[in-house]
Structure formats: C-alpha cells, structure tokens
C-alpha cells in the first residue's frame, strides 16, 4: 500500500523576500527543560507575514549556549521533511547545537508544518490505515485530500521556504550567518546558494535533496547498496550471531521465511491487520537507511528477531505506526513537494531492475497518484538541467552524503558538480540518511563505526576551520571519484 513508503542568478533588483514585511512578536518557547542542553537560553518569536493574500504565521527560535562566542556567526538550521518542525516540544535542537559549539542557533518551523499557520492537512477515513487499497480507493483518497486543501500549495515549496529564511534573518537584524540544512531542507539552502543570499557566510548540506527530482531508480539503486551492506555485515562476514548465520546464507534467504509465515501486526488506532511477506520485510530493513547508523540497526534487528519474533514485532509495529502517522499529518505537504517532477511521467521500475526485490505495485502507485494530485501537471524547474551553467559557490560549502542513503541518494549530490565548483565533499559509503548526527546504535563493524564517528567530526571541523584528521579519508574531489 502506497502510504507505507513515505524524505540571484545574482539579483540586480530588490530580492523577492524583501518585498514582504515581516512582524516579529516575542512569545514563550515551546521547548521543555529536557529539550535544551544545560546553560542554553532560548528566545522565541512569532513571525507573521502575508504572501499571495495568505496570512502566514510561524515560530522562530534563537538558541544561545552559555559559551557562545560573540565573534562567531550564528548557524541557521533548515529542517527536512516536508513536515519537520524544530520549534516544538521535543524538537531536535540539542543534537544540532552539539555540532556547532560556541555558536548560536537560529531556526524556524517552515510554513505549513506543525506550529505554523495555515497548515494544509486532510481528514482521512478509518480505512486510510488499511494495508491494501484498490486503485480506485487510493485515487479517491488522494483526490479528496487534494480538493479539500484551499491554499495554493505552490506557495509552500522550497523556493518560498528559502525566501522565508531570508525574511527571518533580516527581521532579526542579523548580517552574517551560516546555514546547516538537512534532507528536504537542502532544497531551500540550494536556492539560497543560487540566489547568492548576501547574509550567508557558509553552507553545510547533509543528505542533498535535489529540487525537481523524484528519482525512483536512484532510490532503488541506493536501496540495493544499503541492503547489500546489511547482507555483507550480517551474513558474508558473519557479524550476526551464529544462531542466524548457521541457519540462513544471506539476507534474501532470511526474508524468505516471511512468505511461508508472514509477520502479522495490528497497526494504528483502529487495529488494522497487516501481514508482512518477504518483500515487505526487505522494505522494512531498507527503511532503516533513514537513520545514519542503519547499518548498525540492520544486523541487530535480524538477531533480535531470531531471538524473539514476538518482542521484535512490537518494535517493528512502533516504527511503522510512527511513519504512518507522520505521512498522514503531512500528506498534503509531501504530495505537493514530490508530485511536481517530470519523473512522475517516466516508466516505473520493474522486476529485475534491482538485486533485492521490491513492491512493483507501490512504485506504479507513486507515479499514478502524483499525477492525480498534480492535476494541472505543474512541474518545478529542475535545479540542474541541460542548460545549467557551472560557477563557483559564493561561500564555502560542505556536502555530506551517505553512500547507502535511500531517501536522498548519493546520485543527487553528484549532480551538484554540474552547478557549483569549489565544494568540499565527504562520502561515507556505508551510512544512510543524515550522517551529521553520527552514531547511536552499537556497531560491531569497525569501518562503519569509523564513518559514524566522522560524520559529526567533519561538520565541527568545517565550521571551525580545523583539520579533518583521520576523517579526511572520506573526502572526495568529486562524487564520482
């Protein structure tokens, strides 16, 4: 079922963002005491403005550690998604502050997300949680959501989000700032780079999402790479327990058991019955690439499942429900962002295109439902096309990529070589998404552990102008090196 898979040219006139006045009003920050590191102060504001007759409001946060240096420009954090909202209780700000010691952090909830208004959301019937739908019912669900949203969703796309960042910086009276963007947020950062935003003094792009691209084939190629890492670590190198490797020869052999005995779950508030077969389980293992340390989680999942199918199923259920909830809450933003690519009209992948099988019906549904959503066939201009002219980036830029990232495949970051020169690039071959956040899982493989430790180290070194030391081995002059 389709929802289961839901990541100035130089301006010579007054920039578009400056034509719209912004009002800041102090408000209490929504963070809890546990959200912020010790000795960190938070000042929040409501930012209000009008764009295309739509009244927008969101929340801005300025976070200052006790050791903030007055000579260091602050860092602007642009979150991913679409749908991530860092200015909320539970917002992931402590881990970001840790990447930039001694610097203030500025962030906002992008237009349309939780904590911002208007928020384009949809109401769904109970059957939204069903594992499978007919083509007709899928089409009806997407059409009903599309038609219930009264806002021009083109006003919620990456170029407009980039303009909001510049409006925020001007309203705060900040002259210079760096940018740290992740996943979908890198699209806004790329627009700021292309527009040569005058306040920008550096950019760190983690897990590049390329405007105007869906990239079904690239995602599946990255999926093969990630599953290949899990396969090698667990089975070929026998890093999984002998109770696993003595019983199964490889990852495909392990997932084959679910065709004979599917994993049955009851998901969501309505306890919908799901039954996961071998392709579903491959898809779930592949979804671990949304974590930087998915290569650590994968073997742990397999070992845990073989030790206790029942208890591991509880964790799988929780992961699926969290993803499902996120997709339902941000359905309109997700479809608006991903339905305006030319690639929705390209042939869909078929059996035999990958080493590890996938749900062909899901891939076909993506293209079909994107066309249903985007009934006007609106296409966002590709950030990099046949006529793209290459030029040096106007500020220092760090590009971080996980070689096994299935959400924003390495191939998208490679495309940047056709738009910008003078980029500093790092590729961590065995890592998944959001590599700047490094290690969480216990990883047995020393090389994977090294790459996980280097992700945040590289960010800190780049931002401070220090040496990359042992992490320099992951630097690439170009991503096809």
Features:
481 residues; alpha/beta; two-stranded antiparallel ribbon; 15 helices; 12 strands; 17% strand; globular; disordered N terminus
Topology, pairings included?
Layout: E1 23-27, E2 40-51, E3 54-65, E4 75-78, H1 94-97, E5 105-108, H2 135-148, H3 158-172, E6 177-182, H4 185-194, E7 200-206, H5 216-236, H6 242-245, H7 251-255, H8 257-260, E8 263-267, E9 272-276, H9 278-287, H10 294-307, H11 309-329, H12 331-338, H13 360-373, E10 391-402, H14 410-414, E11 420-428, H15 446-464, E12 475-476
Parallel strand pairs: 4-5, 4-6, 6-7, 7-10, 10-11
Antiparallel strand pairs: 1-2, 2-3, 3-5, 8-9, 11-12
CATH topology group: Rossmann fold
Order of helix and strand elements from N to C terminus? EEEEHEHHEHEHHHHEEHHHHHEHEHE
Strand order within the widest sheet? Answer: 1-2-3-5-4-6-7-10-11-12
The CATH level-2 architecture is identified as: 3-Layer(aba) Sandwich
Count of DSSP-assigned helices:
15
Shape: globular
Q: What are the low-pLDDT stretches, counting only 5+ consecutive residues below 50?
A: 1-18
What would CATH call the homologous superfamily? Alpha/Beta hydrolase fold, catalytic domain
Instruction: State the end-to-end CA separation.
Output: 38 Å
- Major sheet size, sense and barrel closure: 10 strands, mixed
Global structural class: alpha/beta
Tally of separate domains: 1
Task: Compute the CA-based radius of gyration.
Answer: 22 Å
Binned strand content: 15-25%
CATH class: Alpha Beta
Could you tell me the number of beta strands? 12
Mean pLDDT: 90
Measured as a percent range, the helix fraction is 25-40%
